[in-house]
Write a structure and sequence with these properties.
Blueprint: H1 9-20, H2 24-37, E1 42-48, E2 54-59, H3 66-71, H4 100-105, E3 108-114, E4 121-126, E5 129-135, E6 141-147, H5 163-180, E7 185-190, E8 193-197, H6 204-212, H7 214-217, E9 220-227, E10 230-237, E11 242-243, E12 249-253, E13 256-258, H8 261-270, E14 280-281, E15 283-289, E16 294-295, E17 306-307, H9 310-327, E18 338-339, E19 342-343, H10 349-354, E20 370-375, E21 379-384, E22 387-392, H11 393-408, E23 416-423, H12 429-436, H13 439-444, E24 448-450, E25 453-458, H14 466-475, H15 481-495, H16 506-517, E26 532-536, H17 537-543
Parallel strand pairs: 1-7, 12-15
Antiparallel strand pairs: 1-2, 2-6, 3-4, 3-6, 4-5, 7-8, 9-10, 10-15, 11-14, 12-13, 16-17, 18-19, 20-21, 21-22, 22-26, 23-25, 24-25
Helix pairs in contact: 2-5, 8-9, 11-15, 11-16, 14-15
Amino acid sequence: MPSIKLMSPQLANMIAAGEVVEHPQHVIKELIENAIDAKAKHIQIEVIDEGLTKIRIEDDGIGMDEEDLKMSILRHATSKISEIKELSSMNSLGFRGEALAAIASVSKMRITSKTKHTEGLKMVVESGVIQSIDPVAMNQGTSVEIEHLFYNTPARFKFMKSSFQQQKHVRQLFLEMALSHPSIAFTLFENEKPYKSTSGSSDVITLIEELYGKQYASMIQVHETKIAHTNITLYLGSPDLNFSTKTFINIFINQRFVKHYGLQESILSGYEGRLMLKRYPFVVCYINIDPNRVDVNIHPQKLHVKLTNESVLSYHLQETIKSIFNQEARPIVRPMQVKDDQYHVQALDFETLFEEHVSYETQSKLPSMEYIGMIGGTYGIFQNKEGMYLVDAHAAQERVRFEYYQNKFDTLNTIKMQRLIPFPWRLDDSSISELLQQKEKFERYQFDISKDGIHAHPQGIKEEDVYRAVEIILSSHTLTMSEFRDALAKDISCKGSIKANQKISQHEFEYLIQTLKTCQEPYHCPHGRPTIISITYDDIEKMFKRIPS
C-alpha cells in the first residue's frame, strides 16, 4: 500500500491558509487588495473583536457574476493572468480567488456580488464548501463577510497576539492601504464604531490630514524627482516631527506598501544629522517603476520586493533628501544677548538643575583646569600644567543632565506628583481611547491617566518632559523601571542641552565643568561621544617638530 497520497482539496487549502492568513490583518489585506483590483472607489472595512469574530469588506467595484462567484473560492483560479510571461509585469495587487480559497477553508464566509449587467447573488461557504447561492438585492460591487475565523483550527488561537496588538496591526494596515491609494475612499469600523475615513480626493496632503491630523499635514513638504525609469514623489516631514519608531516611514512601490530595508536606510541617511539618536521621521515615499524591474513574489504577503536598480535608487533617494534639507531655511537658536561688551549671564538649565545636589567634595575623575576661552561656538579651552583641554559644551551638558535624571529617577517607585489641573491630551478621541487601554501599564511608571489628561506623574520628571515620557511608554513593549529611566534620561538630556554656537559666559562654562566633575562617567555623553579631549605639551611640541614624534 503506497504511503504517499494526494491531500484532499480542503486539507490543502487549510495548510495554504497558514501561509497567507496567519492573522486577521492578513485576511483584511487580501480582501482589500481584491477590492482595489476590482476598481473600487469606496471600500468599507468592518471588524469585530479585531477580526476574529467578524470581518466584512464592502466595495463598489465591478462585481462578479454567478460563474465568477463559484470560481472565486477555487485554488489557482484567477482573472488577472493567463501566461507565465505576465508574472513579471503584473500591475495588480492580487486577483479574485488568490487567497479566498485559503480563507474560506478556515472560516464561515458569505460573498454577495453584483455586476453592472447581472442581478445580485449571495453565496454561503463553510470550511471551503459552497452551501448555497441565492439572489439578493444590492448595488453593484462585492461584499465579503468572514465570521469565526480559525473556528476549525483552534490551535491557531494559541499564536494570536493580544487584542490590543491585533487592533494596532489592523489600524496600521488601514493607514497603509489608504496612503497607497489616495484616490480611493476608505472607512474603518471597529466593533460597529467608526475609527477613521478618507475622502478619496487624490490629494496626499489632504489624506495625511485625514489620517493623522492638521499638525502633521502642516509640517510636510513635497518634492518630485526622477531617475532613469523611476518617478519618486516624497512627502517629507520636518525633522521636528519625529518619533521613537520607524512606523511613520511609509514606502510604496507601484502603489504597494513595502518593507524595504535598503530604501528605508537611505531615507534615514538623508535625515542624518537632523534627528536625535533613535528618533525617526515622518515620510511618505511613492516610487513608480517599470514592473519588469520589480520582483514582488519573494514574500507570501508581498511585503518585501527586489529591485534591479536598488543601489542606484537608494543613493539617489538619500542625496535628494539631503539636498532638500540643505536648501531649507530653518530657525537658528538665538545666542545670549551681549551687553556692554560682556555676556549677559543667564542661569542655564544645568545650573538650576544641579543646585540641589552638587557636591564639590566628591572625588572628581577630571583634573583641575583653568578656563582660557571658547572656539567654534561649541568648544571650551582649558589648561593646566599637563597641557590643553577641549570640552564639548553640548556633550558635557548631556552627561550632566543624564546623570541628574538618573539620580532623580531613583525615587520613581515611591514619589508621585499629583496635579490639581491635569495635563490635557494632544490627541484625538480615538487615540485617547487606545491609550487608556494601557492604563495599568502607565500606573507601573507612576502615571495616573484618564480621558481628561495626565493627573499624576513621577516627581523626578519636569513638566516640560511629561509628554515625552508618555511617548516613550507608548512606544515600548515592556520596559523595566531602570530601562524607562535610561531611555527618558538620554532623550531629555540631549533635548535640553546647549546647542552648537550658543554663546555661554566664562562663569557658565566653569560651572558646567564643576558639575561635570561630579558625574560618575564624565568622559562621554550618553550617546558615546567624548565630552573632553586633552592635548599634552608633548603633543604640542611634537606637532611643532620641537621634539621627535
